Amino acid sequence: MTAGTNPAAASRIVLYLSESGLLIAKRLSSLTMPVKGADIEAILETYQEVIFVTAVPIAVRLIAPHIKDKATDPAVVSVDEHGKFAVPLLSGHRGANLLARSISQSIGATAVITTLSDISGTCALDSIPGYSAVGAIAKVQNAINHGGAPSLINEHGWPLPATLLVGDDETVIVVSDSAPDIDTISSTGVVQLIPSSLTVGVGCSLDCSSEELTELLQTGIRLAGLSSDAIAAIATIDIRADHHAVRSLGIRILAFSSEELSSIEVPNPSEVVQRTVGTASVAEAASLLGAGPDSTLVLAKIKSPMATLAIARRSPQRGELRVVGIGPGSPGMRTMDAQSAILSSQVIIGFGPYIDLIDDLLGPSQEVHRYPIGEESDRVRHAISSARSGYDTALVCSGDPGVYAMAALAFEEADTVGFDSTRIRIVPGVTAALAAAGLAGAPLGHDHVYISLSDLLTPWDAIERRIAAAAEADLVVAFYNPRSKQRTDQLSRALDILAGYRSPNTPVILARKVGRKSQQVTITTLAAVEQSTVDMETLVIVGNTSTRFSGSRVYTPRGYHLKT
Ligand code: SAH
Q1: Atom of ligand 1 nearest to the CA of 400
Q2: Residue range 378-428, pLDDT digits in tens
Q3: In Å, what is the CA distance from 393 to each residue of 301, 331, 349?
Q4: Residue 6 has pLDDT above 90, yes or no
Q5: Residues of the chain with CATH 3.40.1010.10
Q6: Gap from CA of 22 to ligand 1 centroid (Å)
Q7: Cβ 480 under 6 angstroms from ligand 1
Q8: Cα–Cα distance measured from residue 437 to residue 510, given in angstroms and rounded to the nearest whole number
Q9: 39-65, pLDDT tens digit by residue?
Q10: Pairwise CA distance, residues 80 & 21, whole Å
Q11: Which CATH superfamily does the domain covering 198-313 fall into?
Q12: CATH class held by domain 321-430
């Protein structure tokens, strides 16, 4: 058994039956093991994702005696030995459908999804981003899948996906962060959707124990009559963010400086705290800061000998706008943050072909808006208004959102329409230049510059001046938007300027459709560039005077060998 070093990868194991199965298994995880002799019970208890490269009946027989509980069983997927199909066997809505879709993207298999909500396109109550579901889920889901429209009780107006159709059926959906009475709601056909609405502020002395803080948290949640499933984050002062008691709670930690905390008005300031850490409140101020503007304190400060705790609820009308870079195309070049930002967004907005590239991450509980080319401002305005209605909204861009994409436009639009820019989160991605460079070698090994050749928004004069400056400064240049059907001569003008300073043998890389179907990389020289093959899905890198070939690859030395 070989274990990977990446903890995320270590949560996945692949079991195989034969040598050909092993080849597929290796493409799916660094942790592989023969089925024969494997302790399946222990594996199901240890790993979050278990993949069998075997026929479905074999996998079913192996796992059947060890299936325990819908809430704790891992995601299990079976992939046939030719890698043609990926079939979720257990925990479809708790990861297996997603796992099967991502396997289908990485090895070209077809994901065989059979959960009814996914194939009928109805909203799946147990996979609405930002909510957990408890109660009579099977009963209400069944009614929804057969065209029913449950009644809705939603006191605070938490935003729900448009695919969740509600009406006046006897089945009921309650949206609330209050502690549910599971037995009663389950027996009366009620599902409670619990929004992740709460930020728990904590303060503690250096010698506070994990047990004390955990107990204070449980007391606080009980006193306020809230559900612990609604806790989105723990907020505290920066000097306690690494404290073992705070970390042991196992919840995302938000840390604030004493200056930030002092700026918040709280009901129970303390002079002692002010003297010790420079702010009159830690727990209350941190909970309110963490929950964001317009939040409300739902539990004022409570104390134990060594700790304080308060709870705030965020405003249901304050969604986050996430401008997400999905990388050049393939799922492998997406960051974990990009993936989780998309998975946890209720609304997804983007250019149609980019939405196709993240298809494996989308489910029927999300609202997806595909836009045609152009209309960038419309997309951004739509995303802002969606976040304003309370939805966490992902605006997806290819590559990185800050590189000739939507991030800057989102801030411009936010300023124009008065949207608070602190509600915008930029999730970086692998930009085309980096992905293309990697395919060719290390052409960006020394100082380099990105230049867009599109003169739609920038006058050509300005672009030419920048190219000349880059040529003069001997920078490696990555050209974005090099050539379209209408704009055919900019690239040759750009290459002419560089040719005035660089030899005809300067390496040039033409990388087309990087990370997408029919990727093509051509490595050539400044004198031999075949411009007709360059289009708007191509990234062009031109080396500087020290960029050189290493066999069929290209690199720009960093200068170590010049050092004496
Ligand atoms: N935000 C994107 C760039 C958008 S501008 C990024 O960070 O990559 C669009 C230009 O980017 C295209 O004209 C092309 O030059 C380049 N580009 C984007 N994706 C590409 C890909 N997969 N392969 C090659 N070039 C790509």
Answers
A1: 7
A2: 999 999 999 999 999 999 999 999 999 999 999 999 999 999 998 999 999
A3: 32, 20, 8
A4: no
A5: 321-430
A6: 35
A7: yes
A8: 10
A9: 999 999 999 999 999 999 999 999 999
A10: 8
A11: CobE/GbiG C-terminal domain (3.30.420.180)
A12: alpha beta
Nearest CA to ligand 1 atom 15: 480
Domain with CATH 3.40.50.11220 in the chain: 2-114
Gyration radius from the chain CA atoms: 27
Pocket test for ligand 1, best of 538, 540, 541 (most atoms within 8 A of CB): 538
Q: How far is the CA of 452 from the centre of ligand 1 (A)?
A: 10
Q: Give me the helices (H) in 328-423, please.
A: 336-343, 352-357, 376-388, 406-417
Judge whether residue 123 has pLDDT over 90.
no
> Is the pTM value of this prediction over 0.90?
no
Q: Regarding beta strands 520-525 and 507-512, do their DSSP bridges make them parallel or antiparallel, or are they unpaired? A: antiparallel
Tell which wins on pLDDT, 456 or 510.
510
Whether 481 lines ligand 1, by a CB cut-off of 6 Å, is yes
Structure confidence at residue 564 (pLDDT): 55
* Residue-averaged pLDDT of the chain: 92
Residue 9 has pLDDT above 50, yes or no: no
Residues 433-555: name the CATH superfamily.
Answer: Tetrapyrrole methylase, C-terminal domain (3.30.950.10)
Reduced 3-state DSSP string for 537-560: CEEEEECCCCCEEECCEEECCCCH
Q: For the residues 520-530, what does the mean pLDDT come to?
A: 97
> Which among 487, 513, 539, 542 is the best mutation to test ligand 1's pocket, defined by most ligand atoms within 8 Å of the CB?
539
Q: Which of 351, 537, 540, 541 to mutate to test the pocket of ligand 1 (most atoms within 8 A of CB)?
A: 537
What's the rounded Cα separation, in Å, for the pair 559 and 445?
A: 10
* Ligand 1 midpoint to CA 514 (Å): 9
Fold adopted by 2-114? Rossmann fold (3.40.50)
Backbone angles phi, psi at 393, to 5 degrees: -125, 130
Confidence of residue 346 (pLDDT cuts 50, 70, 90): very high
Q: Is the pLDDT confidence value at 1 over 60?
A: no
3-state helix, strand, coil in the chain (%, to 5): 35, 25, 40
Cα 86 from Cα 271, distance rounded (Å): 61
pLDDT-above-70 percentage for the chain = 97
Which amino acid makes up residue 184?
A: T
Which protein residue has the closest C-alpha to ligand 1 atom 4? 404
Q: What is the pLDDT confidence band of residue 115, given thresholds at 50, 70 and 90?
A: confident
